[in-house]
Write a structure and sequence with these properties.
The protein has about 190 residues and is mainly α. It has one domain. Helices cover about 80% and strands about 0% of the residues. It is built from seven helices and no strands.
C-alpha cells in the first residue's frame, strides 16, 4: 500500500467519524426537543385537569356567568384537540385558554364569597403553580428547539440534516401580544 492510499483512507475514516458525530449530535438535539415538548405537554395536561374543578367552583357562586364558564370549557376542549406534534397550533389554543381563564378570574373578583372560598383559593394557587411550571417548561423547550434549529441550519451539519430528514422545531410562543406585556399593578386606594 502506498502512502497516498493510506492518507486517503485516514482522511476518509476521519470524515466518516466526523459525519457520524454530526448525525449523533442531531439525533441528540431532536430527542432533547421532543423530551422538552413532553414536559410542556405534562404541565398543560395538569392545567387542563384543574379547569373543570375551577369552573364547577365558580359555577356554584356565579351561575349566571354561563358565557364565561362555557368559553373556558370550549377553549379547554379546543386545546386538548390539537394534534400532539402541532406546537404552533397548541400554543395558539393554549393562549386562547389563558385569555378565557383570565376572564374567569376577573369574574371571580366580583364575588367576595367566591374569592374567600378555600376550595377556590386552593385551585387558584394550584393553577398559579402550574402556570409557573409551564413557563419553565416552555423556556426549556424553546432552548432545546433553538439548539436543534442551529444544528439543522449550520454548515456542515445542515448537509447531514438535509440528507437524513431532520427538520427544524417550532417554538412555543405566545400569539397574543398582550400576554407578553408586563402586568400593570396599581396601589390606588
Amino acid at each position: 500500500m502506498s502512502i497516498t492510499s493510506i492518507v486517503i483512507l485516514v482522511v476518509a475514516a476521519i470524515l466518516a467519524f466526523y459525519g457520524i458525530s454530526i448525525y449523533n449530535g442531531l439525533v441528540k438535539a431532536r430527542q432533547m426537543a421532543e423530551e422538552a415538548w413532553s414536559g410542556i405537554d405534562v404541565q398543560l395536561k395538569r392545567r387542563s385537569d384543574l379547569i373543570p374543578n375551577l369552573v364547577e367552583t365558580v359555577k356554584g357562586f356565579a351561575s349566571h356567568e354561563k358565557e364565561t364558564l362555557s368559553q373556558v370549557i370550549q377553549m379547554r376542549t379546543q386545546a386538548q384537540g390539537v394534534a400532539s406534534g402541532d406546537v404552533a397550533g397548541r400554543a395558539a389554543a393554549e393562549g386562547m385558554l389563558s385569555q378565557a381563564l383570565g376572564k374567569l378570574f376577573a369574574v371571580a373578583e366580583a364575588y367576595p364569597d367566591l374569592k374567600a372560598n378555600e376550595n377556590f383559593l386552593e385551585l387558584q394557587r394550584s393553577l398559579e403553580t402550574v402556570e409557573g411550571e409551564i413557563q419553565m417548561s416552555r423556556r426549556y423547550y424553546n432552548g432545546s428547539a433553538r439548539d436543534l434549529n442551529v444544528r439543522v441550519e449550520s454548515f456542515p451539519s445542515n448537509l447531514i440534516a438535509n440528507n437524513f430528514g431532520f427538520q427544524m422545531a417550532a417554538y412555543f410562543e405566545l400569539e397574543d401580544p398582550q400576554d407578553r406585556e408586563n402586568p400593570q399593578v396599581s396601589f390606588n386606594g
